[in-house]
Every structure is written in structure tokens, then in C-alpha cells.
Design brief:
alpha+beta; 6 helices; 6 strands; 18% strand; six-stranded mixed β-sheet
């Protein structure tokens, strides 16, 4: 995969980012670093069941372990959603964790383009696919990790221009928690 990306013209900067984002031996992934959840997001997350909160929190931490330099964009539209991007733009996102009333999905922004030999991805849209997650075993496995790494590679390949923003959590939630009763 990495060889194909380089052959297609990805510059050296993005190659280094890809290696850092996907390297299992990366010291950042071994330090169990915890990025705090944005207060706007946390305010709404706290309204969910403890089971959903725990599942989301573990899935989010796993995503940040796999891609410690990614930005996290948080939204509240039809679902409370944490989106993982290689820049500060939604168009450069590779995965998302939408939280619905009673469940969490692991979404892939370009899931229809991923190599999915185990048929883990579901969905009928043009690009987005997802995996229903009920336990950490649904995403903490080699098959899903390979899908996440491939999604990161696609995002890097399709990125318009380099980003200066890394490892940040950016709230796109319109109603701020400090203004709610």
C-alpha cells in the first residue's frame, strides 16, 4: 500500500505522516496518551447511557492511538459525532464515530473504496460505510485496524494541501455548553 501511494505521487511529507500515523511501534501510541474530550461534546455525551459513553470513549481512544496526529472534529447534527481528519477540514476525514440514541458506529468516509475482504463494512451510499460496534472486540482487531490504516492512506492521498493543524480537537457544535442551562 505505501509503495503504491509513493508511486502515485504523494510527497515525502505525507509519506512520513502516514508512517507515523500507522506505525504500531510509535512511542506516542505506547504512552496511552489521553486527549481530553471537548467540553461542548462532553456536555451532550453525558446525556447518553453509561454503556454508550464507555464504548465511544474506548473507540475514540483507539482511533487516537492509531492516529495520534489526527485532528478530531466534533459535531452534533442527527447524531453526536467525532470525526477524525488529517487536517482541520471535514473533506480530509478518514473515520468517524457517530453516537446515536443507543449505539455507536465506526464510520469510514471513503469506505466504499476500501479493500474489505471480510465484508465488515455495511451501507449503501456512494462512499460512506460503517461497522456497528457493540463491544471493543468489534474494532480492536487486525481486520478493522487494517481498514482504518487504509482509510488514513486514502485521506492523505486525496488531501489538497498540507495542514498546519495537527493533534487538535475542534468543536463544530453550534450551541456551546457554557450557554446551556
Amino acid at each position: 500500500m505505501v509503495t503504491n501511494i509513493l508511486a502515485e505521487g504523494i510527497n515525502h511529507y505525507f509519506f512520513i505522516k502516514l508512517v507515523r500515523l500507522t506505525n504500531e511501534n510509535n512511542p506516542a501510541t505506547q504512552q496511552n496518551m489521553v486527549r481530553p474530550i471537548h467540553p461542548d461534546f462532553q456536555f451532550i455525551l453525558d446525556l447518553k447511557s453509561q454503556e454508550v459513553i464507555d464504548l465511544f470513549s474506548d473507540a475514540r481512544q483507539y482511533m487516537l492511538e492509531l492516529a495520534p496526529d489526527c485532528n478530531e472534529l466534533v459535531y452534533h447534527t442527527h447524531a453526536l459525532t467525532s470525526v477524525f481528519s488529517i487536517s482541520d477540514k471535514l473533506s480530509d476525514a478518514f473515520c468517524m464515530l457517530p453516537i446515536y440514541t443507543n449505539h455507536v458506529n465506526l464510520g469510514f468516509n471513503k469506505g466504499a473504496l476500501l479493500n474489505d475482504p471480510n465484508n465488515l463494512l455495511t451501507g449503501t451510499g456512494n462512499l460512506i460505510r460503517h461497522i456497528d460496534i457493540k463491544t471493543p472486540a468489534d474494532y480492536r482487531n487486525s481486520e478493522v485496524t487494517a481498514l482504518i490504516r487504509e482509510a488514513i492512506a486514502f485521506a492523505i492521498k486525496d488531501m489538497d494541501k498540507p495542514t498546519k493543524s495537527t493533534a487538535k480537537t475542534i468543536s463544530k457544535i453550534k450551541v456551546k455548553s457554557n450557554k446551556l442551562p
